[in-house]
Amino acid sequence: xxxxxKVGFVVFYQKQNIFSFNALVAAIETERKLNDIEIYxxxxxxxxxxxxxxxxxxxxxxxxxxxxxxxxxxxxRDLVKSLRKKYGTKVLxxxxxxxxTGDPEGTLKMGFDLVVRGEGEETLIEILTNAKNNxxxxxxxxxxxxxxxxxxxxxxxxxxLDLNKYPALPSRNIKYGAIEITRGCPxxxxxxxxxxxxxxxxxxxxxxxxCDAVKIMKEYEKTDIRFITPNAFSYGSQDGKTLxxxxxxxxxxxxxKIIAPKGRIYFGSxxxxxxPEHVTDETLGLVRKYAANDNIVIGAxxxxxxxxxxxxxxxxxxxxxxxxxxxxxSGLIANVDFIFNLPNETDEDINLTIDxxxxxxxxxxxxxxxxxxxxxxxxxxxxAVKKINEKTKKVISELTSKGLAYGDWKKQEKLAExxxxxxxxxx
Length: 427
Fold this sequence. Notes:
Rossmann fold; alpha/beta; 3 domains; Transcription Regulator spoIIAA
C-alpha cells in the first residue's frame, strides 16, 4: 500500500476565475516548503465531484479552493452542498474572490470552512503551510471562519501585497492567461468592488516581472498577450490619475521585443478597459503603434452627469464624447460600456442616457449594455433593483439590430433581481 502524501491542493478551475488562480499558484510555487504539495486543476462540477475521492484518498489533507463572483453564488452553493454531503470533513473547503470577500458570513454559511478575504497569495501560502504541519488555521491573517457557536470571526487584515514579490504566472504548473499588471483603483465608483477588495492606491507589477511572464508564455508558443488592470492607460502612474506614458510605452516596447515577429499585444480591450478622460491622441497612438486590437473599451456607464456624479465616477459626459470622437478618428472601434438602472435614475436621466447612446452610435461607437447589479461591500450594495423600461429596451434592440450594441443586459437584469432578493432575505 502506498504511503499517503501530506497535502493535496485542489483548484476548481472555472473559466470565470482562472486568472486569479494563476497568480495564486505562481505564489505557492515560490515557497520551497510547499514544493511537495500536489496541485490539481479541475474543470467542471462533475469532474470535481468525482475526482476529489481519489485525491482525498491519496493525501492526509485535501484543500479545495473555490473563487467566485456574486453572480455565481447559487451554483457554488449547490456544488458545496453536494460535496459536503459526499466528503464531509475529509476535505477543507476554502473560498475566495469578490463575493466571499464582500460577504464572508454568507459564504461560510454555504458550507465553507474558511474564507480568504481580499488578496490571497500570502494567506493561501500560510493556510497550506499550516495544513501540511497540522497547525491551527484560526490565527492566520486575512481569513474568516465560524466559531463553535456559529459566530463569525474575522482575523486581522493583511497589508497590501507588493505585486513583485511573486510571479504573475506559474512556471511549473504551467497555466496561461491575461497578465495582471495593476491592482487597486483610486476611482471609488459606488457600484464596483475593485477598490474595496484591492485598495485605492494603484500597485503596478514591474516591467521585468511582466516580461518574465511573457517569456514563459512564449516558451510554450503563447504569444497573444492580454492584461488585467482596472484602467489600462494608468500603468506606471503613482496615483492612477496622472498618466505615466513613458513607463507605459516602455512596457509595450519591452513586450514587443520578446514576442516579435509573430506575437500580438492586446491593450485597452477585453479583459480590461480605459477611463474616458485618459483617451487622448497620445494614448491612442500607443495602441495603434504597439497593439493588435482594433478596439478599446471605454467606461461611460451613463449619459446623465447627475448619475455619473452620484456614482462617484469622476469624469464628465464631455470626457466620454471626446474619447469616442478621438477613438473613431484614430481608426479604432470605441466599445462604450453603459449600465442601465443605476440607483437614483429618473425618467429624465434615462432619456439622457438613451439620447447619448444614439449620439455616440452616430459617431461610430458600439454600445456595450449592462444591467446594474448590487454587489456586496459596495456603496450601492443595498440599493433597489428595477426592471429596464420599455423605451430603453426598444433603443437597445434597434441598436443591436444595426450591429451597434451588444451585451448580456437581459441575463444581468435577472441576476440583479436574484442578488437583491438573496440579500433582502438575509437582512
